[in-house]
Structure formats: structure tokens, C-alpha cells
Amino acid sequence: MTVMERAKLAGAAAMVTGLWAAERIRPSRGARPGTVPGSPGDLTCDWLTGALCGDVPGARVVGFTVGAGSDGTSARRPLRVDYNEVGCDAHLPSALYTKSAPSLLSRLFCGLNRIGQIEGAFYLEIAPELKIETPTAYAAVGEQNSGRSLLILEDIVASRGVTFCDPTITRVDREQADDMVDIMATYHRHFWGSPRLDSEFVWLIDSADWQRRLNEMMGFRRMFTNGLKRSRDILPRSLVARESEMWPALMRSLELDRGRPRTLLHQDAHSRNWYVTGEGRMGIYDWQACGKGPWADDVSYALACGLSVEDRRLWERELLDRYVATLGAVAPSREQAWLSYRQHIMHGLAYWLATIGRTMVQPVLQPHEVCVANVHRLGQAAEDLQMLDAIGS
Q: Which CATH architecture has domain 3-157?
């Protein structure tokens, strides 16, 4: 990052901080239609009417409640909405949930990285084209200067009977693993080498640029190094012995696919971003880090993180063959796919080492037991697949 870019980033951070502080001094009396609410607590019936009733003349929101939720990179809250008779007759959605950035840390992280705007744009502009299991979005607004953002999605627990995956609890069976592969192959095939990634969806960030941005803006290398130290009892000994090779391997892994076709990436396809519907089918959500880049970033991460170590070892060759077959004519060769799969284990492992290696001033993004489970799975995959040798090959 150049001196000018650093200065611009510092200025943007100062503006986000100043505007957040101003909100604390003069709290909002409620969001007006056309503005960006600072949090679900700023919502009003008028604002929700504008966001949810625009396609139904005469429909209005007459009441709503915001429930308790959870916090990570963003704040997630259930929202229940009541409509007038016109809205009820039109079957407008009433079981919803919101994602927003109300705290200073979430404003800086989500705002400076445009995460809120990126996820909203995905759901409204790209998701309708894709025939995959993912939530429906009803409204998305964002503001660059303040870092504010608000996304309103369907509550898929209420609407689809969803159970969210968790590596400490969930065992993904073979049929569900096939589902995961089919979903990724579907959205990868749809945008494989597509010029629309650059010409139409200009807000999508290249995966290598995304990693460099994390390095500069979040102190990712320090987090990664902390994570290595904290994970020495979790990672395989063979990997700990080559600790000094890990950061150079991450940087080299970013260059491996330069010049090869890019596609749409979820880019954070760990196990907690998958769910199981009431009918037993897999779905994927939380698209706030979506971007464009090499297919293996998603597939390696999803399988190594989402499956138990034993199941991955048993199924990964067949699952990768299934992925290649589903891609069809655009697919890499079986040999090239296997090499890329091995190399890109580094992507997910780096994310979770950084998550477990957060500094004291950074928010807790994931429960500790989840971090331990995912570092263990990804570290074992790195050893089994000889990831460092594959990256250096």
C-alpha cells in the first residue's frame, strides 16, 4: 500500500470514527425513509414501509419487534413485522432478520472493507440469477462515509426449517457433501471466466487483492503469527516444524492462479456458513466476503472445514471428481484440479489462524471451540495433502 493509500485509509477511518461518536452524542430519533439506519434500534414503521412495501400499493408496516441476536463481524437480530390488511393480503414477509454494523469496531471493519454493501449487492443483483439454496434478501442499504449498513433477509429458520452447521456438533453426511459440491459448481460455472465480473459487478474484489487488503487494514500477518503460536498444540507436528514456511506459502498461494479463469467466490465457505433445510438439503449464506478468483479457494475451504477429518479423507477424491464433472466443459483436468485443491487449503487455514490469533483490540469473531475445531480440521488437511510441498511445486 502506497503512502497516499495509507493516508486515504487513515482519513476514512477517522471519518467513520467521528460520525460514530456523533451518533453517541446525539442519538437518532428513528430512521427516515431513504436514510441508512445505524442499527435495528433506529428502525421505524415508515422506514420499513419504504423498504418492504414498495411493490404493493397501499401496504404499510404498522408494527415490528427486534429480538436478541448475536454479534461477530456484524450484528444479527431477528425482526418480526406486522402489516396492515393490504400487506397481509399480499403475503409480505413478516419473519425476517437484520445484519448491521452498530459498533465502532464493526463500522471500521465492515465499512472500510465495504462488507455490508458487498453482501447486499450480492443478494439483490447476483443471487436471483443463481439456482442455489441461499436466503432471499428484501432490502439492503449502505453508506461509505459512516460505515453504516443494514441488510434485511428472510428468517430461514422460520421459513425453511433451517439448522445451521457447527463443526463441534454437525456431521455432514455424504449426500449433504454432494450437495455442497453441486452448489459451488453451480455458481462457479455460471460465472466461469465471465467478463461481467469486471464490467457489471465492479464491486467484487479480486481474492488476491482482498487478502492484501486484510494484510494492510487488519494487521492480518500479526494475527496469523499469533494464531500459529496459539495453535501449536492443535496443528500436526509436521506443520509446526515448518512454521517459518507458512506465511511465504500464503503469499505464494495468491499468485498460483494468476492468468487462469476466475469465477464468483463465496470466499468464506467454512462450516458455519452452511445450513441444512428442513428437507435435509444443504444451503450456503453469509456472502459478505464474496469476490472473484480461483474456484479452489471455495472448494478446498468448504470440504476441509465442513467435513470431519475421517470423512474428508474418504470422500475428497470422489467429491472433487463430482465437482469437475458438474462444471462440464470449462473444468480443469482431474490432475490440475487435484493440485489446485491441495494448494488452496492454505486459504481457509490462514483465515482460521488469524481468527484464533486476534489481538486484544479486535472483536471476537467466532467462539474459541469453533476456532479450535476448524484449525484442527484444516491443519490435518494441510498435512494429509502435503499442502506446503504442493504450493512450492
A: 2-Layer Sandwich (3.30)
The model's pTM:
0.90
Quick count: other Cβ atoms within 10 Å of Cβ 93? 18
Instruction: Tell me the C-alpha distance between 353 and 371, whole Å.
Output: 8
Q: Which residue's entry shows cell 509446526?
A: 240
Q: Break the chain into its structural domains and give their ranges.
A: 3-157, 161-392
Tens of pLDDT, residues 345-388: 999 999 999 999 987 766 677 889 999 999 999 999 999 999 99
Query: Residue 263 burial by CB count (10 A; 0-12/13-18/19+): exposed, middle or buried?
Result: buried
Q: How far apart are CA 373 and CA 265, in angstroms?
A: 24
At the top level of CATH, which class does the domain 161-392 belong to?
A: alpha beta
- Distance from C-alpha of 178 to C-alpha of 21, rounded to nearest angstrom: 48
For residue range 174-216, list pLDDT tens digits in order. 999 999 999 999 999 999 999 999 999 999 999 998 888 888 8
> Per DSSP, what are the bridge partners of residue 137?
153
* Cell numbers standing for residue 109: 471493519
Q: Are 132 and 162 in contact (CB under 8 A)?
A: no
Alpha-carbon distance of 381 to 342, in angstroms, equals 8
